[in-house]
Structure formats: structure tokens, C-alpha cells
Design brief:
Blueprint lengths: L6 H16 L13 E4 L14 E4 L8 E5 L2 E5 L3 H17 L18 E2 L2 E6 L2 E5 L2 H20 L2 E3 H15 L10 H7 L15 H10 L15 E3 L3 H12 L8 E4 L5 E10 L2 E8 L2 E8 L9 H18 L6 E7 L2 H9 L5 H16 L3 E6 L2 H7 L1 H4 L24 H4 L2 H12 L3 E2 L2 H4 L9 E3 L6 H14 L6 E6 L3 H11 L2 E5 L14 E6 L14 H12 L9 H12 L6 H8 L4
Parallel strand pairs: 11-14, 14-15, 16-17, 17-18
Antiparallel strand pairs: 1-2, 3-4, 5-6, 6-7, 7-10, 8-9, 11-12, 12-13, 18-20, 19-20
Helix pairs in contact: 3-7, 5-7, 8-10, 14-19, 16-17
């Protein structure tokens, strides 16, 4: 971009402005002052579902004031109406002093039901925090779905421009109801079905399929030119299933309120479920008591896949608990050792019709019953030790059923340093990163210039917050230092994707190494975000050098002394010296020809 303005620079400037406005957190005259960060995380004995998982408080115990920026809009927050007015005044005055105009006419009065912002109506009423949309938008979404259904039932094509416009509106609603997102895929595929190199189901061809198609049809034009969308496009088969799901989710007459924070009387429930062979079992921990169920599948399930049985067991257990009233005003954490079940829940769909119907039942229950639900993949070894694996075989005297502590099997609140002797992980990182700054939760919210590597070790339940702050830190100072992130592989649906986007290198420390033994059940995920290089290609992610390091680490034996330290040490030495090299030599290092 040269000296021209760019979105990157605009966001970077706003982040520096945000830091400037918040000022010194220790200054008692600062409206944004705060004393410490509280980690109110599931799995801990004092977890409170009515409070945020990560929040800042003042020395007097009051929740700290804050503000959020979404594009060019600002939302201020405080523990009282007067506090909100003071926060708004400070934000507006300092933004104006920086040359960022604040339009006072657009301000709203302080309220716990302030109206729509960033695609949702946030309400702090009836004892809990929730998000919803207006009745007008809810009805409009229903009209859109009926319009799509009419075209699907009366023909094999649909107007492109109108569908594209309606898709934009539905995407807008996803910010409020994430459960809708997987079922927009049929619309996406329909809108792209006219593009070249597409299969009949709308999906893009693989390279092998393109080569085969060229062998059969050398004329490229027979697959479309890709220049301009036609007035009407052919709808894809998946649209029928997705439309069915969307119509079910929009069946209520009024828009449901999706709980973000439950009421003060709410409680957390932990449930393990497993299906093996012809049996199933699940255990549920509620208010200090353990409820369990187990049995044998009927003959009608004899031909079903193991993935179906695992997901069906979870859903049956949840529906059974909901029917008994055990899940009212609660937050449910469901643990499974089947990654396909977890993936189907978060994707919201499956190629299998039977799995699709199961997921839709669960999504409908989650959205319309106001159920706060989390599905978490754990190791099969943890499932065995916890005792639910034995339940699926009819054994009721193993694990927690034999008296073991249920909470010991849900360490969502524990960082890598809390799970074992902290000196073990400290010595390992020091062996290849040298002197480092080990960040506390308070450090996450104070981005600053640091020359030595920074080590982030958030608990799995707080990892998404840490990744959000890390992204801001790197965006503000992309060439300052190396960041090292170490997280046990739990709740990966909340943070694994963003970790891969932020870091240049992500690798797994397997169980059985000198730094992470078999008793931990799940491996460690380690990410390394390297500073930008002053030579092209600036960011090192995806270069052959880092790919070779990742491959070497993957092939290392578990019992290797100091597992991976020499490989990682050499990587940091090499990347740390790139700025001092000529551009031609840098390319030879990053893209070796040998």
C-alpha cells in the first residue's frame, strides 16, 4: 500500500486511540480504572453462570467501566446510569481531541434496554442478560423464507439479485442467533452455482475433478465464463434441507431471547455421554448430586453408525433432562469423546440425513428453549477414567459413580501451569525461547512494547478472550516480539480457529512427553506468533521453513529428551536474524531449494 491509507492502519489507529482513552488503570481519578481481572470459569467450584467468564473489577469490588468499538460505533458501559454518562463524556472528549469526530446527536440515553446495536437488541432485564431482534425483523425473516420456499416448490431456479439481498439480511440475523449460520450454506451454494468449476450440488470442484472434467470437456466455456451472474440461478439440493431447518427455527411467533448471562439463581450442569457397541450411558452432575442413565439400544438402532449413536445418546440425555425440568435456568456443559458429534453440533449440519435431523433437534431446543449449551470434545481416556464409558457397558461402580470427584474431570478453568508443576513447562519454554515474560490475565489487557518473548497460558475456557487481546496486541505492534501460546486441548471450538489465524506456527505436544504426561488425557496446543520481517513476504506463516519445522515436530518421538527444544531454538534464532540479512538471503532461508 506504500504511503496510502489502508484498513489495517485505520484499525491500528483506533486500537491506539482505545488504549489512550482508557489511560492508566491505577489512576483513582480515571473512570476506566480497574484493579484485577476475575476468571469466573466453568469447572471451578465458585463458577457463577450469571456473570461473565472474564471481567475486570475495581479495588472496591465494583465492575469496572468499559467501552466497545464496532467499526465506527461506540457502546459505553458502567455499573450505573451516572457512570455511563461519565464514560460517554470521556470517550467523546478524547476522541475529539484525537481528531476523531463524535456525533453527539446520535447518542442514546443510558438504559438496560438500549435498542439495536451491531445486529442485536441487548437487554438486561428480568434478572438476566439476553439478545434478541425486533418483531419487525423476525417477521421479515419469515417472509423471506416463505418466498424462497415458494420458488423452490414451483421451479428449479430463483432470482439471483433478490436472493442475494435476502441472504445479506439473514447473515445480519446470525449475529444474534448463531444457530442459524450453518443453515445458510444452501443459499450460499445456490448463489455460487453459476460460477465455473462447480458440481451439481453447488460445491467447488477439487483440482482432480477439474482435471478429469477438462479431459472429458476441453472447452472451458461449457463450465461457465465467470464474468457476470445470470438473472436467475438454479437452486442446489442442499437448499431444501436448510430451508426445512430455518423454517423450524423461525416457527415461534415472537423472536426468542437468547441468554448471554443467566439469572442469579442459575447453576452449571456438567454431563458426560458415551455410546459403545450396543449400549449407552450418560452421567450428569447437578447441585452436588450425580444422575446417571444407561441401557441397551433397541433393534431399530442396530444398523446405525457409531457417530449417530454417540450424538443420539447425547441428545436423548439432554431431552430427557429437559423434560424432567433439570435444565431450567441452567448452563449445560456436555462432554463427548466423539469428535464427529462435536463437529456436527457446531457445524449445524451433516451429510447424513439422520445426523442432520438429530442436530436440528438440538439446535431447535437450544434456540427456542433458551438453553445455554456447550458441547466439548474430550479424550476417550478421560471418558474411561470418569466412568461414563463403563456406564455404556452397564457398569455402575466406576469413576464418579464410585465416589471420585466429578469436578476433577472438567478442568476447563485450569491453565497448563495449574494442571501440573509449573516449573516443568517453564524450564521447557526457557530452553528454546530464553528469557520470557509470562503474562497474567491482567497483562492481557495492557498491550505494550516488549522485546523479549511473551508467553500466554490461558485456561481453555478463557482462551478466546486471550486470543482476542493477543490479536489487538499484534495488530498494534506487529514487529515487536514473539508471542508463545500454550493451551490444553479443551473447548477448541471457541479458540482453535483464531489461534491458527494469529500464529505463524501451531503444533501439538503429544501425551507422554517429559513435559506433558499421560495423566493429562488431552495434548497441548502450542502456537508461536513471530514478529513481521522487514523483507518480503513480511509474514513467515506458510513458508517452507515453518512447514519443515512443523513436520519435524510432528515426527518427533514422544520420549525425546526436552521434546522439540533444539528445533524450536533454531527456528527462533533463524527468524530473529532475518532483519539483518539482505533480501536475497532472506528468501533463500525461507524458501530453501535443497
Amino acid at each position: 500500500m506504500g504511503v496510502r491509507f489502508s484498513p489495517y492502519q485505520a484499525v491500528q489507529g483506533v486500537l491506539f486511540a482505545e488504549t489512550f482513552i482508557k489511560g492508566d488503570r491505577h489512576d483513582i481519578s480515571n473512570i476506566f480504572r480497574w484493579d484485577r481481572v476475575v476468571l469466573n470459569l466453568p469447572g471451578s467450584p465458585d463458577y457463577t453462570p450469571s456473570k461473565s467468564w472474564v471481567y475486570k473489577i475495581r479495588a472496591d469490588g465494583i465492575l469496572a467501566s468499559d467501552f466497545l468499538i464496532y467499526v465506527d460505533d461506540v457502546r459505553t458501559m458502567g455499573h450505573s446510569a451516572e457512570e455511563c454518562r461519565l464514560v460517554s463524556r470521556r470517550v467523546a472528549s478524547l476522541l475529539n481531541s484525537l481528531g476523531l469526530q463524535d456525533a453527539a446527536r446520535k447518542r442514546r440515553e443510558e438504559s438496560q434496554t438500549p435498542g439495536a446495536w451491531a445486529g442485536a437488541i441487548v437487554m438486561t432485564a428480568d434478572g438476566f442478560v439476553s439478545v434478541s431482534i425486533s418483531q419487525e425483523r423476525w417477521d421479515k425473516a419469515k417472509c423471506i423464507l416463505n418466498w424462497i420456499q415458494e420458488h423452490v416448490t414451483t421451479g428449479d431456479d430463483i432470482p439471483f439479485k433478490l436472493l442475494e439481498s435476502h441472504r445479506g439480511f439473514l447473515i445480519y440475523l446470525v449475529r444474534t442467533y448463531p444457530a442459524l449460520n450453518p443453515y445458510l450454506k444452501g443459499i450460499h451454494l445456490t448463489l455460487d452455482s453459476w460460477q465455473p468449476w462447480r458440481l451439481d450440488d453447488g460445491w467447488r470442484m477439487t483440482l482432480a475433478e477439474i482435471r478429469a472434467a477438462l479431459d472429458d470437456h476441453p472447452d472451458f466455456s461449457s463450465f461457465g465464463t465467470g464474468e457476470k451472474a445470470p438473472p436467475r440461478v438454479k437452486w442446489v439440493p442442499r437448499l431444501i434441507n436448510d430451508l426445512e431447518a430455518l423454517l423450524l427455527l423461525f416457527a415461534p411467533a415472537m423472536p426468542p431471547r437468547r441468554p448471554m448471562r443467566l439469572s442469579a439463581s442459575a447453576f452449571a450442569i456438567y454431563q458426560f455421554g458415551d455410546a459403545s457397541g450396543t449400549g449407552f450411558g450418560s452421567s450428569l452432575f447437578l447441585n452436588g448430586s450425580i444422575y446417571y442413565r444407561h441401557g441397551q439400544w433397541s433393534s431399530s438402532y442396530s444398523d446405525e453408525s457409531s457417530n449417530f449413536l454417540e450424538l443420539a445418546n447425547l441428545i436423548h440425555a439432554i431431552e430427557d433432562a429437559h423434560a424432567k425440568g433439570l435444565l431450567s435456568d441452567s448452563e449445560l456443559f456436555v462432554f463427548t469423546d466423539n469428535s464427529a458429534a462435536e463437529g456436527a453440533f457446531y457445524k449445524g449440519t451433516s451429510p447424513s440425513r439422520r445426523l442432520f435431523e438429530l442436530v436440528l433437534r438440538l439446535r431447535s431446543l437450544q434456540m427456542n428453549a433458551g438453553l445455554a449449551l456447550h458441547v466439548i470434545h474430550v479424550s476417550g481416556k478421560r471418558m474411561i477414567a470418569q466412568g461414563t464409558d463403563a456406564l455404556s457397558r452397564g457398569i455402575t461402580t466406576a469413576g464418579v459413580m464410585a465416589g471420585m470427584e466429578f469436578s476433577s474431570f472438567v478442568p476447563l478453568h485450569e491453565s497448563v501451569q495449574q494442571r501440573q508443576d509449573p516449573n516443568v513447562i517453564f524450564d521447557w519454554v526457557s530452553s528454546w525461547a530464553g528469557d520470557s515474560v509470562w503474562l497474567t490475565p491482567e497483562d492481557w489487557f495492557q498491550p505494550r512494547s516488549v522485546t523479549t518473548p511473551c508467553v500466554w497460558t490461558p485456561p481453555p475456557a478463557a482462551a478466546d478472550v486471550a486470543m482476542d487481546q493477543l490479536g489487538k496486541w499484534i495488530h498494534m505492534r506487529p514487529a515487536d516480539t514473539t508471542h508463545i501460546i500454550i493451551i490444553p486441548r479443551l473447548m477448541t471450538s471457541r479458540w482453535r480457529k483464531i489461534l491458527g489465524k494469529i500464529c505463524d506456527l501451531v503444533f501439538t505436544v503429544p501425551l507422554g512427553t517429559p513435559i506433558w504426561n499421560f495423566s493429562q488425557f488431552e495434548p497441548l496446543i502450542v502456537g508461536i506468533a513471530l514478529p513481521l520481517c522487514r523483507h518480503k513476504s513480511w509474514r513467515l506463516r506458510g513458508t517452507p521453513l515453518l512447514e519443515s519445522v512443523e513436520r519435524t515436530l510432528r515426527e518427533l518421538p514422544q520420549a525425546t529428551r526436552g521434546w522439540g527444544w533444539s528445533v524450536l531454538r533454531q527456528l527462533l534464532i533463524t527468524t530473529g536474524s532475518l532483519d539483518a540479512m539482505p533480501a536475497g538471503m532472506v528468501r533463500q532461508v525461507l524458501y530453501p531449494t535443497g
